[in-house]
Amino acid sequence: MRFDEADVVPEWYTGAMAFSDDELEELKEIFDHYDSDGNGVIDREELRRLLVALDPEFTEEDVQLGLQALDGNENGVIDWDEFIEWWGKR
Ligand SMILES: [Ca+2]
Ligand SMILES: [Ca+2]
Question: What is the CATH code of the structural domain delimited by 19-89?
């Protein structure tokens, strides 16, 4: 998955372009699964569960760094846009 053209697409569309409908549907399921309270964003605790599921070795410090790295608009939570962008870069 590459994002070389990300610079030339509108900001609101970054990430989504690289995914097929099927992949987006799958991502949405993952996102919804970890968005335990269903408020449409992944908060710090929800992100911790996601990261630990990916790698049990993740520490609180890693979670904090991850949150800072992923939270592009710095509102303290991972929005859907930030999530799919991150997933594409993994
Ligand atoms: Ca949530
Ligand atoms: Ca955010």
Answer: 1.10.238.10
